[in-house]
Every structure is written in structure tokens, then in C-alpha cells.
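Page 42, continued from yesterday. The earlier attempt failed because a stray header line got pasted into the input along with the sequence. Redoing it now with the clean sequence only.
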Amino acid sequence: AVKRMPNNPSAHYGVASCLHRLNHTDQALAAMGKVLQLAPNDSGCQILMALLELDKKQVSQARQRLERIVETEVNPIQLARACLELSKVYDKQRHYDDAFEMLSRSGELLRRQPENQRVNADYIFDKIALFKQGFDDSLLKRWRVDELADSQPSPVFLIGFLRSGTTLTEQVLAAHPQVVTSDENQLLDEVVDELEQLTGIRGNTPEALRKLSLDHARELRKLYWLRASEEFTPAVLKKRFVNKVALNSIETGLISCLFPDAKIIFALRDPRDICLSCAMQSFTNSPATINMLSWQGIARQYAAVMDLWLSLRERIAPDYLELRYEDTVNDFENSFRKV
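This time it went through. C-alpha cells are written below.
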């Protein structure tokens, strides 16, 4: 794009952004020099420049740049982004009250946007309430492993809450030659879609599972492994496949019913750290993340997800292991030997 449009700031910005994501900071800075010549007053460009300055440990310069944007920007999306990045600068400088104020302001600006107002913030809570009531002991252990007897591999699910250490755990496990790990994916969502097709029951997974026949349960297990092999190569069928999607924790009941042979690794972390880390992230908004735009929403969703897990963990069929993030940091080897 730059070759075709050498004076287009968006093209140069795209190059700089890619270089930043690749951690080629010096090259990204060089590209940003051209961007700022072409669009010196663009807030998005100024924010990316501030991020690059932070990478170069030029904290004071980044702070001044972001504070100028916060003082003058009128576009709420760009202002929210600047507030978010400025909060991280204040955090690094131990100005915690200022950091908290900027995080709160960023979330509130985004929460007020019409596209975010249209997202159902109660979706997760309604789903959790349905699952907590609907998954009784008989459904959680509806089929024994020997009843399913379909020669499919035994899956591993790495779940928990957002920012609980699932990515660190996935990266460690990926280093093992007999393990294949996944990035975020929709495999269980596709299983649920097919479940609804087979039973004609939509929006009520527990009720659909009650109606499901054993043969159809085998079909869903087969579908899971077919899609896993398509997305993550056929190696998943020969090695140990670890499916890492943090909020699949909400689907623990489904996992227990269809995959009693599974192993579950449940990532735990101090909830204060989780809530703060969630507030500092720029999530793509969805029903699963819309509550991350307020402190109350984050805390409420964390409490609801953990309450569901606590209500199910002693009754599910799969073996599970709770892995605490603080333990992996303080006693890395022993923690992962257990895994």
C-alpha cells in the first residue's frame, strides 16, 4: 500500500502498527516519522507514537504526548484510547489515583457509545443462571466413558477467567513435543450450534443435552475433533490437544456431559489482579466482554463465573486441576509438573 500511495498516512500507519506488533520498535519509529509528517494532528498516530516511546522507556515523553491528547481530543473513541494508555503510564509512575481515574474515564466513554449500548450486558449472567440451575448431577454425568466408546481422543480444556494466566499456561504447555495447544477458538460454540440443530432446542443447552441421544452425543464428539483437526492440523489427533479459551469455563457443564474423559485445567489468580488487568485491556466488545468497561461489571462477571465453577467442580465427570497464577510465578517447575 505504501508503494502505491507513498503520501497516504494510513498506509504508513499500517506499516508502523505491524512493526510495533512485531516488536521492531526502531523500524516502527522510523515509519512513524513519515506518518507524523503527513498527519501531525491525528490522535491515533500520536497514541501509537506514545506506545513506541514507552517501548523505548521514554515514559515522560509518552506521558506528555498522551496528556495533550486527553486535553484536546473530542472524538470519544480516540479519547477513551488515550485515557486507557495514559492510565498505564500513570501506573508505571506509581500515580495510582490518576491511573484509576483514567481507567474509569476510558471505560465510561466506551460504555456510552451507541454500538456498546446495544450489546446485551446481561447475556452472560442469564446464561450462567440457566446453567447453574439446569446442570444437575444426572446431566453432568449422563454418559460414562465406556458408554460413549467412540475411540475419540480425550480432550484437555484450559479455562478460567479473562487475564487469569491461561495464555502463560498455554505457552508453557506448547513447548512440550507431545502437546498441541490452541489459541482462542469457537470449537465448543460450533458443538452447541450442532446440538441445537439436532434437538431443535435453542438457547437452553441443558435442556438440549437432556433430549440428545447417545448416537448424537457421539456425533458431537466427532464434530469437535474434526473441527479441531481442521483448525489446528491432524496432529491434535495424535498428541495431547489443549483447548485454551478462558471463558469456556461457562461451558463446564457441557464439557462434563459430552466429554467425561476430559481433563480440565482451571486457571486461578487473585481477583484484584484479574479485575485490574481486565480494566487495562482493550477488548473487542461482545456479550462476553461488554461488562469489562466498568469496575462493577468486571467484578460482577468475575463473581458469577467463579460461583458457577464452585457450584459444579465437585460434581463434574472430568478430572480437574486448579492452577494458581501466583504459584506458577513463585514455583514454576513444581506447578507445571503437576499439570
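Notes: Residues 214-232 form the longest helix (19 residues).
Reminder to self: strip header lines before submitting.
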